[in-house]
Amino acid sequence: MRNINVSVSQSGLRDIWYRFKKNKPALIGFIVIIIIALIAIFAQVIADYQSKAIQMYPIERLQTPSWQHIFGTDQFGRDLFARTIHGARVSLTFGLTCAALGMIGGSVIGASAAYFGGAVDNIIMRIVDVIMSIPGILLTLALITVLGQGLRNMIIAMTIGMVPGFSRIVRALVLTIVRQEYVEAAKATGCSSFRIIFVHVLPNAVAMIIVYATMNIAGLIIGAASLSFIGMGVQPPEPEWGSMVAEATTYMRLYPHVVLVPGLSIVITALSFNLFGDGLADALDPRMRD
Amino acid sequence: MTRYVLKRLLYIIPMLLLIVLIVFLILNITPGNPGRIMLGPNAEQYLVDELNESLGMNKPVLQRYLDYVLGIFKLDFGFSYRTQEPVFEEILGNFPTTIKLAVFSVIVSAFIGIPLGIISATKRYSAMDISSTVSALFLASIPEFWLGLIMMLIFSLKLGVLPAGGIGSIDHYILPVLTLSLPTAAYLLRITRTIMLEILREDYIRTAKAKGASNQRIIFKHAIRNALLPIITQLGIRFAYLLGGTLIVEAVFGMYGVGTVILRAMQLKDIPIIMGSTILLATLFMLIMLIIDLMYAYIDPRIKSQFKKGNS
Fold this sequence. Notes:
Number of domains of chain B: 2
Distance between the termini of chain A: 20 Å
Number of strands of chain B: 0
Strand content of chain B: under 5%
Number of helices of chain B: 15
CATH class of the largest domain in chain B: Mainly Alpha
CATH architecture of the largest domain in chain B: Orthogonal Bundle
Number of domains of chain A: 1
Oligomer: heterodimer
Order of helices and strands of chain A: HHHHHHHHHHHH
Structural class of chain B: mainly alpha
Largest sheet of chain B: none
Number of strands of chain A: 0
Helix content of chain B: over 70%
Largest interface: A-B, 45 and 48 residues
CATH superfamily of chain A: MetI-like
CATH superfamily of the largest domain in chain B: MetI-like
CATH topology of the largest domain in chain B: MetI-like fold
């Protein structure tokens, strides 16, 4: 396992960037993420949502890629490029929001468990154990069943599924920090628990927490696509990569591009985040320091 | 040792009750309307109300929870709203397909992932190491449903060498098992590599080297033996995960297993099935973890001796 007893000072950030830069695959991942993010932000400028990604044109259905439709068209004659870039919006929003919310929730719960210790720690960690023994996809699906479908409920369900694992990691991180002298000093000067956790403890763990969150984004994006694929996530006609694949399976034998385009979009995005997250973790790992 | 086993077995009871409580609470966030689901949208309201009452939907949540827990001890998980069959039988009847998928997948992925992980760690930074870690990262970035569809497209629809879906012969299992195994193998490769690298840095490996042991002897006699336990733990976790995680692959290849039962129940809000299957799978997960822990204690002499001294 990685050594998680790290704290990153301001001057350390330059070190990290220097080591990260040397890792070419991670750098490529980072650049691809920026490109995808820019495309997602300007999706509406590149192709109009209503007229390009939603409106159906039966005459143009199932065209293979051409200059007019660089990714081809789908079974309803919609431009796959327009749908793909609007799909990037959904996937990125989902991945980033879930990772951020999971990170915040996990930090608060994990840090409280580690800081207060004793009975509080015991109760929190037992509940975490129990939730983690429920297969992730079942927990998410059960929550969606009771909350209803749609992007917002999907985010809530996936975040709840993520928080326990995150709490466990943050707890381990914080345990090493809580024993340091400066925390003792803060206690002695009469700081409130709240202040100690949020001002003295968590900022020292924040770099590692962000790395863990980043490493989860790829999985979250894949999870969202999988939920939509089985019809429990984002509903058609909204362009989401997973539901685009699901809608197109009947046509894939003769027109493979209808499943290749959205599928490869997921793979490229997930791979970029995986490379980026791995590179970030390596750059932070003190063992790699020379 | 017996004391340790007993302690662990007793410890699992409150944990199981907690599982039931949490699953029960999640699925009762919104009041269900099973009468409506069973009788359909055209039924008279008074019939629906009567049915809801006879099912105990009007009782307070706590009462229903206690009834449910008492039922579990008799393996009574209630009845499916849709088929009116007992939940336990509905799930158990479809378990063989899922178990076969999980067992085959764990075996296949172990045979691919573990040896490659060991080779990658012992020949660090070699072409072999780089290519297998890169492909592992790549495989971890492919959604299962898409991997399954692409394999189906190539091997069934284009080449026509394997069936595209259904259950029956062993042929039907090849593509689904491959779909589940490749990402699992990638995961095992990465974890095995990490574990092995960790062990190769240990002092006893350096000692063995200093004593002039051959490379082969160090790897096979010292490193792999110590790496095996954590690797087996990971295998167990993956197996438990696969039991609940075959849902998507079952959907892609049209195999009727527990995953399909659960997915259907989710679409129809068949709460007893969802509750029963989630509780059963979580219980299974805990039992598998318990078995691994006990195995640890049994195999590893360090843990064993700890409990002999009586400081458990």
